[in-house]
Structures are given as C-alpha cells and as structure tokens.
Design brief:
The complex is a heterodimer of chains A (about 250) and B (about 300). Chain A has about 250 residues and is of the alpha/beta class. Chain A is built from six helices and 15 strands. The radius of gyration of chain B is 21 Å and the shape is elongated. The relative contact order of chain B is 0.12. Classes of the chains: A alpha/beta (about 250), B alpha/beta (about 300). Bound molecules: flavin-adenine dinucleotide (FAD).
C-alpha cells in the first residue's frame, strides 16, 4: 500500500526578458537572468501541497545549465526536498527534452510526475504528453484540481468547451494549469535553509536529430499610431470622433 | 498532398479546413457527435471517432490508425489537442511543431511561423515535421461543400479513466466573430463595473471580452471571452482595451485588430505602445464621458 507519495516535479528556468541584440537588432537572451517559469511554479506548489497532505518526498528536476541553479534553489526554498540539475540543454527541442527526462526518471521510483502545462517562453506543451507516452503512464493534462486516493489520482482537466474528470492509477503524469493554485513565496528563513538541501548535478548526453532550420527570428513590428491623450476631455473628444467615423455615424 | 485534421470540435475543424484548403486535400477526424456538423464541408473523408473520445492516448491512437496516406496531421491548439498531437507525433515517429499560425508546404519540408518567448518574438522556420498544432481562430469556418465519406473509427486503449464531463457556461456570442470588441482587464477593479462596460458595448454594438485575470481567475466574464495566448485570437475592426496593462500574452490575441483604443490610468502601461489611440485616465471617469459623447 502507498503510505506516502514520491513526487517528481519538473521545473523550467526561462529567460526573464528578451533583449535586442545591438549588432543584429534581432532578439537575444544572452546574458539575461533566468527565472522560474510561471507555470512550473504552480507545479512545484502543487507537489509541495500533495506532499504536505499525504507525506513523502518531492524532488525537483530541471534540464538546463548551471544558470538554472538559482531557480532550483528557489524551488527548494518553496519546500521541495531535493533537486536534480541535468545539464546539457541546447535550446528548445521538446522531444529531446522529453527523452532526457523520461530516461532519467525511468531509473527512479515515483508515484507522480508533475509538470506545468506549457511553459511561458516556448509554449509548445509537448513535453508532458511525450514523457507520458515514452513511459507508457497515464496523463492528466491541464489539471485545475487534483486528489490522491490510495493508489489512484483523480484530476479535473480544463478544456475550452467542457471540463473532464479523469482517474488514473499511479504512477501517473500530471500537467497543471495556472488556475490550480497560488504559489507560495518562500520566507527568508526558508531561502537560507534551502542552501543545505541536496542538489545534485549531472550531465545528459543528448543528441538532436531535428530537421528544424530557423529562417528568421524577429520582434513583430507593431504599426500602431500611438496617439496618446493625457488630457481626458480632449482624449474622449478625439476617441469619440474616431469611433463615430469607424461606426459610420 | 493530403492533410488530416483532428479536432474535438466541428467548429474548429472547419476553421482549420478553410485555413489549409488552398494548400492540400483534407480529411477530418473528430468525435462522432461532432462529425455530422462537418461532413459536408468539402473534406474527402470524415473519420467519426467513437468510444473513449476524451482520453488523449485513445484518441491519438485512433487518429494515427487512419493517418496512412496523409502527409501531415494538423490539430487546433486547444488544451486537449495539445495533448493528442504530441502523442500522435511519437506514435508515428514524426517531428512536431506547436502553435503555428502560418503554413506553406515546400518540396523538402514546410515553412511555418510561430511566436516565441511568450509572444514577444516571431520565428520563421523550415521543418520536416509532420504534426502541427495550429493556433485557433485563424480563419472563418469552411462553408457548405461537397459531402464527405464518413468512416467510423474506435478510440480505445486509453491509460486513464474518464469519470465525468461537465459543461462550461457557454458565452452568448463568439468573440472571434465580433466586429467591435470592448475588452476589460483587472483595472476594472470590481465585477459591478461590468455594468458600465456593457453600456459602452451597447452604444458601440460591441461584444464584451476580457483579459485572463478577468475571465479565468476572477471569473467576472466567461472563460470563452478571454483574449490572448491561452484565450481567443480576435481581429475586430475596433478593439477597446479598458484597464488592461498590455502584457504580451494578451497582445498576441488582439494584435490583428484594425484600430486599437486603450484607456488606462498608468501612462507607462505597455498597452499604450500597442494602441492607435490612448486615453490616460480612470475607466470610471472616461467611459461615462465616452458613452455620453456617442449617444
Ligand atoms: C503562459 C501564460 C499565458 C497567458 N495567457 C494570457 C491570455 O491568454 N490572456 C491574457 O489576457 N493574459 C494572459 N496571461 C497573463 C498576462 O501575462 C497578464 O498577467 C494579464 O494579461 C494581465 O491582465 P490585466 O491587464 O487585466 O491585468 P493587470 O496587468 O493587473 O493590469 C491592470 C491594468 O489596469 C490599470 N488600471 C487599474 N485601475 C484602473 C482604472 N480605474 N482605470 C483605468 N486603468 C486602471 C492598471 O494601470 C494596469 O495597467 C498569460 C500569462 C502566462 C504566463
């Protein structure tokens, strides 16, 4: 019988911002600080809540580079027990990321494998279903609520036209929606304590066979007029005129 | 060239059909309950999926079982489609690209465009991928056309059990078709403020939409009125943004609007970079005056 949960949660470190490369005028994230992906934060929070409720362990795993260390430390401060940093990330390539993660966790014991539904930078949503396929374990995707009962996990997935409640035998793969919780902010004490939690670093030998070829990467140009009124009355006057014209009044 | 579209809804399947119809011959795969609504819109075949139609593995397997003879699989980027497509790609050992909004097949691959960094940048790529999720709302649904041959396909072998389907409140209108939109953000401050917003919408003959906090977190508006990356993509003649800060995830959804008007009390709000006309001011002061002027 399951007495406690063994949870693995995948988190992603993403660039805080995108800058303009002074030479090419194209986008670059070189030298930009990393932050925890917004939705990874929800996954970490949910893993901690489940652990607090059922007992057990919650381990964070990230596929990235040394620069992701601080992000992992933050997740440890939030309440994860330990962290695994897999180095060797060479840019956005969801199926490669999925195979690295699937291979890594196939060597571990776990009940729940948790993700954010779709990261805020690349927004492909491919990794959780692919990992679930590779491990042949059930997937509850874009979950807005979760409940563990004995050996099963129940979750409600939020879709556009309806919601679906699923039930799956553990081990199971979960991806969470932003609405599932409000992530905690670690206290100073927790941040200090996190530096004593175990964080292991390893290297992945991942080879990409993708045919993808980038033809262009640009900032979309906004062609807006940007006529801004700080005088409200004047603004209302002008905007009403524009609206009347568009409406043909 | 032949493409297969899988969608859980006839409406989105038909939108994607119009988006792709000049490029290739198309077949559709969709749940049996939706199939009738899309079986005479010019698709050669409609695969009506029955059985475990809400389980992503079962559906991906059913779709893949009829993929032979097709060059590409396209799936509207919904929260269910985003689960089915990667599993299908793995099943047929194909590469996959997500959230594309432009597709042009070439001799040795396809040219696609998608947003990156949460919508801040635009990528143009050439790819050998066969499976794509496609942003929703890119085209009007396909018109009535030639009838399709309907073939039933069973979805089975799911890894999870479906316990319950619960409906969501349906919006009274589809904001992607609106000619004029009045959209509200968290700056509205309170749900009661919608009364004023509806007055403006009524004067303008507009639909009311909102940002993610307003629709998905605060639930002041139905979720299907959300504009943005995780909501709808709209392209009205006029988009009026009230108390919306203009974060990139919102902008992606309204970028194609013809004229954008913004009201925000913070003159440094990013929405003022993305509008044609902006008024720096309080919604509760500006909107009543605007209604007065337009009456
Ligand atoms: C992966 C991901 C996906 C997302 N998808 C979406 C999406 O689909 N759609 C979406 O909208 N967001 C989305 N977001 C969220 C997005 O980043 C922003 O948080 C959100 O758009 C902000 O909504 P808002 O402008 O209503 O609220 P806020 O950012 O809080 O802005 C409120 C604005 O109102 C102004 N204001 C306050 N009071 C008044 C007043 N009385 N009069 C006038 N102005 C006032 C303020 O100055 C402020 O600019 C997504 C985020 C992530 C990470």
């Amino acid at each position: 019988m399951y007495v406690a949960l063994n949870i693995l949660v995948f988190l992603k470190a993403i660039p805080e911002d995108v800058k303009e490369d002074p030479r090419t005028h194209g986008p670059t994230v070189e030298g930009v600080k990393l932050k925890m992906d917004d939705i990874s934060r929800n996954a970490v929070e949910e893993a901690i809540r489940l652990k607090e409720k059922h007992g057990g362990r919650a381990t964070g795993i990230t596929f990235g580079s040394d620069a992701a260390t601080l992000v992992m430390k933050e997740a440890l401060a939030m309440g994860l027990d330990e962290g695994v940093l897999i180095k060797g990330y060479a840019g956005n390539n969801p199926s490669l990321t999925a195979s690295v993660l699937a291979e890594r966790v196939s060597r571990m014991q776990w009940d729940l494998l948790m993700f954010g539904f779709s990261s805020a930078d690349s927004y492909t949503a491919q990794v959780p279903p692919m990992v679930s396929y590779m491990l042949k374990r059930p997937l509850i995707g874009n979950a807005v609520s979760l409940r563990v009962e004995g050996k099963t996990v129940k979750g409600v997935s939020s879709y556009e036209d309806y919601n679906v409640a699923y039930e799956a035998e553990m081990p199971a793969v979960i991806s969470v929606a932003q609405e599932i919780n409000t992530p905690r902010i670690p206290t100073l004490l927790q941040i200090m304590a996190a530096s004593k939690k175990p964080l292991s670093v390893e290297q992945a030998q991942a080879q990409s066979a993708r045919t993808l070829q980038v033809l262009g990467h640009t900032f979309p140009m906004s062609q807006r007029k940007r006529i801004i009124f700080e005088d409200t009355n004047k603004g209302v006057e002008e905007v009403a005129a524009v609206l009347r014209q568009v409406l043909g009044k | 060239m032949k493409g297969l579209i899988y969608s859980e809804s006839a409406q989105r399947a038909k939108e994607l059909m119009s988006f792709l119809k000049d490029q290739m011959e198309l077949d559709l795969a969709l749940p049996e309950a939706e199939a009738v609504q899309a079986s005479s819109n010019g698709a050669s075949r409609v695969y009506a999926i029955y059985g475990d139609v809400y389980e992503p593995f079962a559906v991906a397997s059913a779709v893949v079982s009829v993929f032979d003879g097709h060059d590409y699989l396209f799936v509207p980027a919904t929260n269910f489609g985003r689960q089915v497509a990667p599993i299908a790609a793995q099943l047929i050992k194909a590469e996959m690209e997500s959230e594309i909004f432009y597709f042009r097949p070439e001799q040795d691959g396809a040219i696609v465009r998608r947003y990156f960094y949460g919508g801040k940048t635009l990528l143009e790529e050439k790819t050998g991928a066969k499976v794509f999720t496609v942003m929703t709302g890119l085209a009007q649904p396909a018109q009535q056309g030639s009838p399709s041959e309907v073939i039933r396909v069973e979805a089975k072998g799911g890894l999870s059990r479906v316990l319950q389907i619960s409906g969501k409140q349906k919006a009274s209108a589809d904001i992607t078709k609106a000619d004029i939109i009045v959209s509200v953000g968290r700056g509205l401050g309170k749900k009661e403020g919608l009364e004023l917003v509806r007055q403006l919408a009524s004067v303008l003959g507009a639909e009311v939409a909102g940002s993610r906090p307003v629709c998905s977190d605060l639930h002041w508006l139905d979720e299907d009125r959300q504009v943005g990356l995780t909501g709808k993509r709209v392209r009205p003649r006029v988009y009026v943004a009230l108390g919306i800060s203009g974060q990139i995830q919102h902008i992606v959804g309204m970028r194609d609007s013809k004229v954008v008007i913004a009201v925000n009390k913070d003159k440094t709000a990013p929405i003022f970079q993305e509008c044609d006309y902006g008024i720096v001011g309080d919604i509760y002061e500006v909107v009543p005056k605007l209604i007065e002027k337009l009456k």
